[in-house]
Design goal:
The structure holds two protein chains of two kinds. By secondary structure, chain A is mainly β. Chain A has no helices and twelve strands. In chain A, the strands form three sheets. In chain A, strands 2, 5, 6, 10, 11 and 12 form a six-stranded mixed β-sheet that branches. In chain A, strands 3-9-8-7 form a four-stranded antiparallel β-sheet, with no helix packed on it. Chain A has a two-stranded antiparallel ribbon with strand order 1-4. Chain A is globular. Chain B is mainly β. Chain B has strands at 5-7, 10-13, 19-24, 31-38, 42-50, 53-56, 65-71, 74-79, 88-95, 104-105, 109-113. In chain B, strands 2, 4, 5, 6, 9, 10 and 11 form a seven-stranded mixed β-sheet that branches. A four-stranded antiparallel β-sheet of chain B has the order 1-3-8-7, with no helix packed on it. In chain B, strand 5 (42-50) and strand 6 form a beta hairpin. Classes of the chains: A mainly beta, B mainly beta. The A-B interface holds A 32, 34, 41-46, 49, 51, 89, 93, 95, 99-101, 103, 105-106 and B 4, 31, 33, 42-43, 45, 48, 50, 55-56, 91, 93, 95, 97, 99-100, 102-108.
């Protein structure tokens, strides 16, 4: 079945550091890929998405590129801020009518000033 | 739009009691999802509905759990009887469906069963 494997956390970085959170997936066909973010005490919210190979999703300085050849969708940001502290989830959705999202386990990110 | 609304935000109950969680999806959304989040198991999909009809309930842990969607603007998740291992944060989400559309999550209900 479909699965998403995420980089183990927690991750702690200093402000303005470069961020990478790794995500790889297993799925048949060509799924859509997502990064969701969960701030403390809140529900998940979509950060970015990509729907086909080589697409790059971007939002709030975060980027991720859909790599079919390596089945990866790594999240990157060039300069993190304290406000980026949250839990980040990678997810996929099959592109054949199934609305179920398969989530990774989440990566907790803490940014220290 | 107010977003997905869940109530209550916090619920503390004793083992054996019935618990009912409520969700109001975003108006116009055709899909509604119930998730459970725990430290041990992460985020799990329990059930989802399309146009008020349950489509996949394979994630419902056991018969003590039931979910209904009597109309397009309301859904409930009921646990009867509740057990301490049901303690978790329960999220409701809704979406327009179609390809690529995101799910919008509510703020969650934190359930503690003593």
């Amino acid at each position: 079945g479909d699965s998403v494997t995420q980089m183990e956390g927690p991750v702690t970085l200093s402000e303005e550091a470069f961020l990478t959170i790794n995500c790889t997936y297993t799925a048949t066909g060509y799924p859509s890929l997502f990064w969701y973010v969960q701030y403390p005490g809140e529900g998940l919210q979509l950060l970015l998405k990509a729907t086909k190979a080589d697409d790059k999703g971007s939002n709030k300085g975060f980027e991720a590129t859909y790599r079919k050849e390596t089945t990866s969708f790594h999240l990157e940001k060039g300069s993190v801020q304290v406000s980026d502290s949250a839990v980040y989830f990678c997810a996929l959705k099959p592109n054949f009518g199934n609305e179920k999202l398969t989530f990774g386990t989440g990566t907790r990110l803490t940014i220290i000033p | 739009d107010a977003g997905v609304i869940q109530s209550p935000r916090h619920e503390v109950t004793e083992m054996g009691q019935e618990v009912t969680l409520r969700c109001k999806p975003i108006s116009g959304h055709d899909y509604l999802f119930w998730y459970r989040q725990t430290m041990m198991r992460g985020l799990e999909l329990l059930i989802y509905f399309n146009n008020n009809v349950p489509i996949d309930d394979s994630g419902m842990p056991e018969d003590r759990f039931s979910a209904k969607m009597p109309n397009a603007s309301f859904s409930t998740l009921k646990i009867q009887p509740s057990e301490p291992r049901d303690s978790a944060v329960y999220f409701c989400a809704s979406s327009l469906g179609l390809q690529y559309n995101e799910q919008f999550f509510g703020p969650g209900t934190r359930l503690t069963v003593l």
